[in-house]
Structures are given as structure tokens and as C-alpha cells.
Amino acid sequence: xxxxxxxxxxxxxxxxxxxxxxxxxxxxxxxxxxxxxxxxxxxxxxxxxxxxxxxxxxxxxxxxxxxxxxxxxxxxxxxxxxxxxxxxxxxxxxxxxxxxxxxxxxxxxxxxxxxxxxxxxxxxxxxxxxxxxxxxxxxxxxxxxxxxxxxxxxxxxxxxxxxxxxxxxxxxxxxxxxxxxxxxxxx
Length: 187
Ligand SMILES: [Zn+2]
What we know:
Blueprint: E1 6-9, E2 16-19, E3 27-28, E4 35-36, H1 52-60, H2 64-75, H3 83-97, E5 101-107, E6 115-119, E7 123-127, E8 130-134, E9 139-142, H4 145-151, E10 157-160, H5 163-186
Antiparallel strand pairs: 1-2, 3-4, 5-6, 6-9, 7-8, 9-10
């Protein structure tokens, strides 16, 4: 596999650094001399929210490394999933286990491409001690930071009837997002 250099920025001085895509190998910033460790966050579960079908698609296309980079740098910004994010994941898993929600055959259009669920009956979940109720037929998805901004959410869960939104994203913005990633890689 050819090594492609990806540009990242030094977290200390902001200078551009060439990175060969290897996680866990330190780079010394030529400008300020600080050591930068790509992917040196606590995140060992970088794929926590990525729908398996989405991941398989990137793997098939040979772009899984780029998606991982995107999650680490654009989604997590070098940090880790928040407690609320993890709690949301646990709650969605629980609801699915209990049969209250089921996975849809599609995923949210923004990285890290989380699974979209549909409620099979009315129910509720708890995040940070707060209750969020949903009705049968509504869709649920973990809301990444960009989605939270877009829908002005305080908590990382999106519940609603956003099928048209999702379809729109999958047909348009998603392709754009993926193309954007491709062109960034080539740049
Ligand atoms: Zn630097």
C-alpha cells in the first residue's frame, strides 16, 4: 500500500506537519520542537459509533485509514468520546437488546456515520440523568458534534421523524462528504 502523506497541524504552534498516516509514532514539529503523537488519545474504540455497514464500505473502497483519521481529527479533535456519548451508545444498545428499537439499513450521513434506529414502540432513554422519550416509528441516532450544532441539540441524541433529511443526506450530502474527503486526500 503506497504511503500517502497527510497534513496535520501541530497542536502547540499550529504549523503544518506531514504525517505518513501511522498512528502511535511521534512526529517532532520542525518549528517549535514539540512532540506530536498522532492518535495518541485514549481512544481505542475509534469505531464506537460507526455503523458496521458504513465501515465495511470504506474498507471496501480502501479508504478506512482516511475515515479513521477523520474520526480522530475532525470528529474527536484529538480528544475522546464524552461520557454522554458513551452513555448514549449504551442506551441505544440496551434499547436494541430489549427490542424497542431496530437498526435501519442506512446510517447517518456525517462522519463517523452512526447507525440510525427506528422505534418499534414508545419508550425512553436516559442521558446524564435526563429522560428523552420517543414514539413508535420515530428515528433515533447518536448526534455527532456537527449534528448537534446543526440541530441545536444540547445532548448527543437526535430523535425525530427525519427520514427525508436522512434520505437527502444519503443521496446528496453524503456523496459530497465522501467526495470532499477524497479530494482533500488528493490535495
Ligand atoms: Zn509546533
